[in-house]
């Protein structure tokens, strides 16, 4: 397989990752509505910890850098919290 072919495969994976992040953001909007209905705060420390612990463990099992994966998911969680704030009228996203 050529270098260009492998790079094209990576590009396709990158696009799928972006699509999955977009789906995660759409779900964050649904979560915002549910939290608002139940009077819950946007930030959920125990849930955040559970997600970070889960992805760390899965990364270890998948033999990839668990610290890097946890860092990526911290960013994703921050993005979701910002989306939830926006859906609640408190954020700064479009």
Task: Please provide a written account of the structure.
With 94 residues, the chain is mainly α. The protein is built from 3 helices and no strands. Helix 1 (3-38) crosses helix 3 (66-87) and helix 2 runs antiparallel to helix 3 (66-87). The radius of gyration is 16 Å and the shape is flat.
Provide a compact summary of the structure:
This protein has helices at residues 3-38, 45-61, 66-87.
Reported for the largest beta sheet, the result is: none
Shape: flat
Number of strands: 0
Rg for CA atoms: 16 Å
**Beta-strand percent range:** under 5%
Intertermini distance: 42 Å
Elements, N to C (H/E): HHH
Helical content stands at over 70%
Contiguous helical run count: 3
Q: Output the structural class.
A: mainly alpha
What value does the average pLDDT take?
94
Note poorly predicted spans: none
Considering the chains and any ligands shown, give keywords for the structure.
94 residues, mainly alpha
Question: Which helices and strands appear, and what pairs or packs with what?
Answer:
Blueprint: H1 3-38, H2 45-61, H3 66-87
Helix pairs in contact: 1-3, 2-3
């Amino acid at each position: 397989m050529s270098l260009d072919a492998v790079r094209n495969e990576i590009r396709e994976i990158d696009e799928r990752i972006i699509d999955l992040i977009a789906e995660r953001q759409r779900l964050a909007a649904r979560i915002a509505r549910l939290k608002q209905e139940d009077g819950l705060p946007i930030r959920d420390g125990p849930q955040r910890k559970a997600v970070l612990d889960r992805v760390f463990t899965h990364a270890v099992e998948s033999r990839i850098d668990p610290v890097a994966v946890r860092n990526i998911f911290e960013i994703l969680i921050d993005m979701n919290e910002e989306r939830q704030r926006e859906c609640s009228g408190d954020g700064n996203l479009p």
